[in-house]
Amino acid sequence: MAEEIVLETRGLTKDFKGFVAVDGVDLAVRRGTVHALIGPNGAGKTTVFNLLTRFLAPTAGRIFFKGVDITSSRPAVVARQGLVRSFQISAVFLHLTVLENVRVALQRPLGTSFQFWRPERVLDVLNDRAMEILETVDLAGFASHAAVELPYGRKRALEFATTLALDPEVLLLDEPTSGMGHEDVARVTALIRKAAADRTVLMVEHNLGVVANLSDTITVLQRGKVLAEGTYDEVSRDPRVLEAYVGNADA
């Protein structure tokens, strides 16, 4: 099963009025793996994510999820099928408690999202599952805290928890450790490893230590094209990759 391709692009291209941000990208993400998408600033990584989750329409090329062409699917349909982008699609309500935030996320698959007027006892049936998820992300001790009170790293963990509540099959992480200190990076890295135990992860990440620690496969983009692909050891020794990073002051 690990060899099965769960998410694939063929010739994926995005042209913004003459500027080609993504240029003929072929990507194949194997089920049950952590696949990293890296490259210098401006390489097209976030645009690829926006195309995969259908927040942008490709100029050319096709996107396949579990063998089904989703190139023309709406973002909400793609998310319901199990392709979920964390930290972007998740909603955190700052003045709800941590537990209430996860409980709202658990309502979404039931079709009762945001129905705050429902009696408290009706929503209490979700508490056990919500607490299980909070245990997973090391937030059980913060269950009764308002989300606004959380420090930055814990708030990102809560966003992660609300995404896990959607039970994604493939989790897309866009810069999951951005702006974090060493302790928070270590915590989020551990969370990603837990999440990857029973699902597929595709992530964009600038922290190459995190990439080396977590990734099975790495695809390197430069100027919208695939420059190299392989394990961390393989791509880190590739002269083209070294040139791309050394030659870019923002890499």
Give an overview in words.
The protein is α/β, with parallel strands linked by helices and 251 residues long. Helix content is 34%, strand content 25%. It has a 6-stranded mixed β-sheet, with helices on both faces. Strands 2-1-4-5 form a 4-stranded antiparallel β-sheet, covered by helices on one side. A hairpin with a 2-residue loop joins strand 4 (60-65) and strand 5 (68-69). The radius of gyration is 19 Å and the shape is globular. The model has no long low-confidence stretch (mean pLDDT 87).
Short description:
This protein is an alpha/beta fold and 251 residues long. It contains 10 helices and 10 strands. The chain has 2 domains: 1-82 and 169-251, Rossmann fold; 88-167, no CATH class.
Descriptive key words:
2 domains, four-stranded antiparallel beta sheet, 251 residues, globular, Rossmann fold, alpha/beta
Write the topology of this structure.
Elements: E1 5-16, E2 19-30, E3 34-38, H1 45-52, E4 60-65, E5 68-69, H2 75-80, E6 83-86, H3 98-107, H4 120-123, H5 127-136, H6 152-164, E7 170-174, H7 182-195, E8 200-204, H8 208-214, E9 217-222, E10 225-230, H9 232-236, H10 239-246
Parallel strand pairs: 3-8, 3-9, 6-7, 7-8
Antiparallel strand pairs: 1-2, 1-4, 4-5, 9-10
Helix pairs in contact: 3-5, 3-6, 6-7
